[in-house]
Amino acid sequence: MNGLRRWARLALGMPSFVRTGQIGDGRENACADFVEATAPRGDVDAALAAIDTFATREAMLVNVGVEKGALLDAAVRRADPALAVELGTYCGYSALRIARAAPSARVLSVEFSAANAEVARRIWAHAGVADRVTCVVGTIGDGGRTLDALAGEHDVTAGSVDLLFIDHDKSAYLSDLLAIEERGWLHRGSIVVADNVRIPGAPGYRRHMREQQGTRWDTVEHKTHVEYQSLLPDLVLESEYLVG
Ligand SMILES: C[S@@+](CC[C@H](N)C(=O)[O-])C[C@H]1O[C@@H](n2cnc3c(N)ncnc32)[C@H](O)[C@@H]1O
Q: Is residue 223 annotated as a catalytic residue, yes or no?
């Protein structure tokens, strides 16, 4: 079966709440079971490979995937972060990639589904990165509660966020970025990576970055493909903060 047909079968064959909300139908827990059963403990490469195998052979997962994951890895290496923040944990795959590309970084990942957070924590513990990768259950759009928790309980301070990966609710990309910018957590040279800017699409975020090109942001639009197939086009935006 070619990549697109496999993707369509795995992705479109599932209920819409799974496609859009990524609230589990059991596949996320099954993925954690698979990682624990097949990847040696303490091996990040093996854990990532096991998640990719599960997503390719067993059930579609909305991880950033292999092709876009390589773009994320390169951006992480460019940012060389001491602190990385991610919006949208899901099963913890992209946070694992960030942790692998930045072996001494602290990674904070924000996720509104407590069930997804538990899956990610199991996988991080198995991969041996739980001491520096943390899931904060909440959402940036909750009126400041999660932002306050990041500041008060997880030591996010002015200018401390070196890398931000945005991969959650596409309609919240811009407002959540602005909320983080408003807290003063970015610094000149911070890198922000946004997934799925073409599919499902984040047009307001893309417009904002285009309008601010060369003034507040310097953005590269990476042409790529939707996760785990090679036909549906997608865009990953990599933006450098020019302020501060
Ligand atoms: C595409 S998945 C993230 C994939 C993950 N970054 C990876 O590549 O491994 C999106 C995740 O964001 C979560 N989410 C959706 N809207 C959110 C919001 N407003 N705040 C926090 N998390 C949200 C979903 O529950 C889901 O787990």
A: no
* 180 closest CA partner among 205, 146, 214: 146
pTM > 0.90: yes
DSSP 8-state assignment for residue 40: P
Q: Would you kindly state where each structural domain of the chain is located, as residue ranges?
A: 3-241
Q: pLDDT of 44-73, one tens digit each?
A: 999 999 999 999 999 999 999 999 999 999
Q: How many helices (H) does the chain have, and how many strands (E)?
A: 10, 7
Atom of ligand 1 nearest to the CA of 138: 21
234 is catalytic: no
Give residue 18's pLDDT band: very low, low, confident or very high (50, 70, 90).
Answer: very low
In terms of Cα–Cα distance, which of 135, 134, 179, 187 is closest to 157?
A: 187
Mapping DSSP to helix (H, G, I), strand (E, B) and coil, where does residue 171 land?
helix
The CATH number that domain 3-241 falls under is 3.40.50.150
CA 11 to chain centre: 18
**What is the CA(169)–ligand 1 centre distance, in A?**
6
Q: Give 173-212 pLDDT, tens digit per residue.
A: 999 999 999 999 999 999 999 999 999 999 999 999 999 9
